[in-house]
Design brief:
Elements (H helix, E strand, L loop, with lengths): L1 E10 L2 E11 L4 E5 L6 H9 L6 E6 L2 E2 L5 H5 L2 E4 L11 H5 L1 H5 L4 H14 L16 H13 L5 E5 L7 H18 L2 E5 L3 H7 L2 E6 L2 E7 L9 H8 L5 H8 L1
Parallel strand pairs: 3-8, 3-9, 6-7, 7-8
Antiparallel strand pairs: 1-2, 1-4, 4-5, 9-10
Helix pairs in contact: 5-6, 6-7, 7-8
Length: about 250
């Protein structure tokens, strides 16, 4: 459904993406892992057209995304942002229904859908009238998830979905993501460095390293990849090739 062909992106002298090739099948949950600054977020921004690659092509259903009508293209996507990105001045239900209202849906119908999606992520209808400042971190993340699925998108991006959450709430969010993606039959792309998320969410995993896809495979193969770089990252080992590289500067 999504294909990246030899994607390159540099910012000044820093080459962030250096020939990224990746395919994401329809209905698949792909998780992209890698250290900070490895280009995970830039990869998603390139797919969405928020950042223009210096070279390469991105295809959606075999069509070059640069040739697609922008509004219709973006309507196919939902996104859970790392920091929540909720609008502080709006009640929760308007945050969830933001796209629906923007597209002209009447308030009564949008409110009904917002409450339905809030219930799907384990929040009661009473939360709908609250404001983001009144929510805990876990509740805010659930609201963000409800917003991501409100318009029933075909493709959902999850940007570090468990950042800032305690282990129990991280587990809850991971389980919700997996259930919702499966129920909707959506294609999912998640970027994270949290291996608990990888194990809970992924069908396939790709590791970005030095601007390229260094390893790709089924989620259940990652613990036995046989690659020392992947092995150190996955198991969080203090000693290994990534440490030696960091110490070298």
């Amino acid at each position: 459904m999504i294909e990246l062909q030899n994607i390159n992106k540099a910012f000044g002298p820093k080459q962030v993406l250096d020939g990224v090739n990746l395919k994401v099948a329809k209905g698949e949950s792909m998780v992209i892992i890698g250290g900070s600054g490895s280009g995970k977020s830039i990869t998603i921004k390139c797919i969405l057209g928020l950042v223009q690659p210096d070279a390469g092509r991105i295809l959606l259903d075999d069509q070059d995304v640069t040739t697609l009508e922008r509004t219709a293209f973006l309507a196919r996507f939902g996104m859970l942002f790392q920091g929540g990105a909720l609008f502080d001045s709006m009640p929760v239900w308007k945050n969830v229904a933001f796209r629906l209202l923007h597209e002209g849906m009447n308030k009564a119908q949008a409110y009904e859908i917002a409450v339905e999606k809030l219930k799907r992520v384990g929040l009661s209808a009473s939360v709908a009238e609250q404001f983001p400042a009144e929510l805990s971190g876990g509740m805010a993340k659930r609201v963000g998830l409800a917003r991501a699925i409100a318009a029933e998108p075909e493709i959902i991006f999850f940007d570090e979905p468990t950042t800032g959450l305690d282990p129990i709430m991280s587990g809850v969010i991971n389980r919700l993501i997996r259930e919702i993606v499966t129920e909707m039959g959506a294609t999912a792309v998640t970027i994270t460095h949290d291996m608990s998320s990888v194990r809970a969410i992924a069908d396939r995993v790709a590791m970005l390293y030095h601007g390229k896809i260094h390893w790709e495979g089924a989620a259940d193969q990652i613990d036995a990849s046989g690659d020392p770089i992947v092995d150190q990252f996955v198991h969080g080992r203090a000693v290994g090739p990534l440490t030696a590289e960091a110490e070298k500067g």
